[in-house]
Amino acid sequence: MLIYILKFSACLFIFMAFYKLFLERENMHQLKRFYLLLALVLSITFPLITFTQFVEPITITQNFSNAQQITIEHEAIEQTSLWDYLPQLLWTIYGIGVLIFGLKFVLNLNVIFKKIHRNPKLKAHRYINVLLSDEVTPHTFFNYIFLNKYKYESQQIPQEVFIHEQTHAEQKHSLDILFIELLQILFWFNPLLYFIKRDIKLNHEFLADKAVLLNGIQPSQYQQLLLAFSSNAAEPQLANAINYSSIKKRFTLMKTRTSKRAVWIKSLLILPLLSVLIYGFSTKEVLKKEVHSELVQQKATKAEIEEYNKLAKKYNAVDIEERIIKKKDLERLETIYRKMTLVQRAKAQPFPECNQTQNYSREEDNKKFSEANYYYKGERITFEKANELLDKNN
User: Fold this and answer.
1) Is 161 exposed, middle or buried (0-12, 13-18, 19+ CB in 10 A)?
2) Which of these, 77, 68, 42, 5, lies nearest to 273 by C-alpha position?
3) Which helix (DSSP H) or strand (DSSP E) does residue 280 occupy?
């Protein structure tokens, strides 16, 4: 989880840095809106993407032997420290944060719904004007436009303000705000979300300003209206409102002209950015291709199989009760049989069973004869004396 949070934050930071460097001061507000929302979505999804690469497994030759494997087991001593409780503590803190910010979100929604239900409303085309007795800055939530009742009834609200707020409603800017608010509940600890939320809301104001100017309003006249209706009061969390702190940037952007060529170039710059981020923040997984057996045996050669079949056939032809296998033949049979694959064993002669193994090792024979007891004319004699007597008789 920690790695995901770090990747999400780093990815979002790079998106925002690109926005500040190349897009923020340009008069291309629809593209900027799309970019900021896409930055949030991709920052969430890129760390979740996994690219799987299949590689050929390394073949390890397993030679079977009669050597006994000794496994030494060390008794684990479990020790409990404060670090063992750290994950639980962090999850508890995270859960409390989600609960607090979720409750705050619900309360903000409740405030808006109370304003809608407790105050008079007038429908104007596709929009609903909610008339408040409080001295408020005009603001919008979906199709609801909140206005001061006295100023509305006395017709002190200019048409430019209505166009501005109706643009917020028409372009569904409230959806963007709800989306970022929900993300803030899940990632309440990430300060980058607060900065990108500010940029999203400011870009909404750019879009509304542009819509007003496209209706033939003079920039200087509109700027005076903004100064008259702007306020330093706390901005509604879930609504779009005219705010004094953003006036200077909005005045600057009204005078900015961005050519179509610049729009295309900066749009194309986003593509390599996406490529770098998806490669850098996705997960790479390397998997070995599946093999049919866990142990890869050394394969017996054709000559070895022929040798094995010849020996096995020879001894299998003798009845098992009378079968005696020479020691060197038995060792050779076992060596070749161990090297065979399962398929080779299935096609080969059955491994010959035996009751006795004939040992023709001269050294072992001499050892057996030397340990025997020898007698001559009723007296026990040595092995060497017995050999001398045998030589004389021969």
Assistant:
1) buried
2) 42
3) helix 260-281
Give the whole-angstrom CA distance, residue 324 versus residue 354.
Answer: 6
Q: 322-349: buried (b, 16+ CB within 10 Å) or exposed (e) per residue?
A: ebebeeebbeebeebbbbbeeebbeebb
Give this prediction's pTM. 0.67
SS3 content of the chain, % helix, strand, coil (to 5): 60, 15, 30
Tracing tokens 């009834």 back to the chain, one arrives at 153
Nearest CA to 205 out of 244, 157, 256, 152 is that of 244
Q: Which helix (H) or strand (E) element contains residue 7?
A: helix 2-18
Residue 322 · residue 287 · CB < 8 Å: no
- E-strand stretches of 254-358: 283-288, 296-297, 324-326, 356-358
Fill in the amino acid letter for 121. K
pLDDT at 262: 87
110-141 confidence digits (pLDDT tens): 999 999 999 999 998 899 999 999 988 899 99
Report CA 353 to chain centroid distance, whole Å: 57
Block means of pLDDT (10 residues each) for the chain, 394 residues, are: 91 96 93 97 94 68 44 51 80 96 96 96 93 92 95 93 95 97 96 96 95 92 84 63 74 86 90 93 76 56 90 86 80 88 87 65 52 58 65 56
**189 φ/ψ angles, rounded to the nearest 5 degrees:** -85, -5
Beta strands in the chain (DSSP E): 50-55, 61-62, 121-124, 127-132, 139-141, 144-148, 240-241, 283-288, 296-297, 324-326, 356-358, 374-376, 379-381
Please check whether residue 286 is in contact with residue 58, taking contact to mean a CB–CB distance below 8 angstroms. Answer: no
CB 137 within 8 A of CB 147: no
Q: Rounded to the nearest 10 degrees, how much is the dihedral formed by the CA atoms of 11, 16, 22, 23?
A: 130
Q: Residue 341's pLDDT is what? A: 84
